[in-house]
Amino acid sequence: MTKSTRWVSSFGKAPFQLNQHLPVIRLVTPLTEERGIELWVLRLDQTDSVVSGNKWFKLKYNLLQARESGRSAVLSFGGAYSNHIHALARAGFLMGIQTIGVIRGEPEYANNPTLQDAIEWGMKLQFVDRKTYRRRHDTDYQELLSKTFDDPVIIPEGGSNSLAIKGCAEILSDELLSRIQPDQIVLPCGTGGTLAGLCVANPELNILGIPVLKGADFLYQDIRNLIQDAGMEDSDNWQLDLEGHYGGYAKADSSLIAFIQQMNSLHHLPLEQVYTGKMLMRLMERIDAGLYPEGSSILALHTGGLQGTRSLEY
Ligand SMILES: Cc1ncc(COP(=O)(O)O)c(C=O)c1O
Fold it and tell me: Which of 139, 150, 201, 260: disulfide with 169, CB 3.0–4.6 Å?
């Protein structure tokens, strides 16, 4: 069963406008049936064929503002398979904005499919070692990058800043919420920026983030800081489930891979191993553990990132 909300982008002359409906699907499995749970998945991965998922919303105001500012370029940071770097490169290409990616790792990574795409879309890449990469938030390092690359707009790793919060605040439409009336919204967390945007826009909702990093307690403070930096109120309407990392960031064991394959073959739901696969697997465990009363309605967000599945083959 497919219902629709909002509009999918064509990313043409008017980038970051949604022009067609985004689907929300009802996921019915033996477990959801047995527990009497209504589980919905909002397919944010279908915002655009490349600039997809939460990236579409996180980049929206960052790139529109960068274009208006007339600055030379946009620079950001990421790992070798970063969805953020990939989406930024594509959006910059389509909007005629020069992009620069500071990548953690060796120059050989430039051969991987994610960075090959970025290069094709005109992104300049600078590879840095782990020690240098750790300085990505430091003012002196950012000043050095500004000098080197002619004063670009600098967007943090994962794209999480105040403008990203503003974009993510637009993810859930009133129409969707009144139709589904979710008891809980569930999404994967990396930096927590997407969750922060959802929380400030929907203080009445109960929002659960599932961090994909091990030992992600630091996110409680990071998310509060993101909300505060955006000049918004924290309504304390969110929680984190720290058990959904399955070994740590980008670690994928055989049970996770089997779950992803099953979701794809039985439910035609494509997931990837870093964010959405872990989020949905953990959500199923929570349902199985009886954490949701019968009759609950849960809305899970498919935050995209499907380009990252190529890292499994590479
Ligand atoms: C596909 C996908 N889902 C979720 C996230 C996590 O988003 P956030 O960093 O805003 O928590 C990311 C990374 O940003 C991502 O690439």
Answer: 201
Q: Whole-model pTM?
A: 0.95
CA 168/CA 212 separation, integer angstroms: 19
Which residues have C-beta atoms less than 6 Å from ligand 1? Answer: 53-54, 83-84, 158, 160, 188-195, 275, 303-305
Give the contacts of 313 (CB within 8 A, at least 6 positions apart). Answer: none
Other CB atoms within 10 Å distance of the CB of residue 189: 27
Give the integer Cα–Cα distance in Å for 48 and 210. Answer: 24
The pLDDT tens digits for 118-148 are: 999 999 999 999 999 999 999 999 999 999 9
* CATH class of the structural domain 2-53+163-313: alpha beta
For the domain 56-160, what is the CATH code?
A: 3.40.50.1100
* 2-53+163-313 and 56-160 share one fold: yes
Ligand 1 atom at minimal distance to the Cα of residue 212? 6
Whose CA is closest to atom 1 on ligand 1? 305
Task: Note the pLDDT tens digit of each residue in 71-107.
Answer: 989 999 999 999 999 999 999 999 999 999 999 999 9
Which of 48, 303, 310 best tests ligand 1's pocket when mutated (most atoms within 8 Å of CB)? Answer: 303
Q: Which atom of ligand 1 is nearest to the CA of 58?
A: 10
Q: Can you tell me whether residue 307 is helix, strand or coil?
A: helix
Q: Any idea where the domains of the chain sit in the sequence?
A: 2-53+163-313, 56-160
Centre of ligand 1 to C-alpha 201, Å, is 18
State how far the Cα of 87 lies from the Cα of 51, in Å rounded to an integer: 5
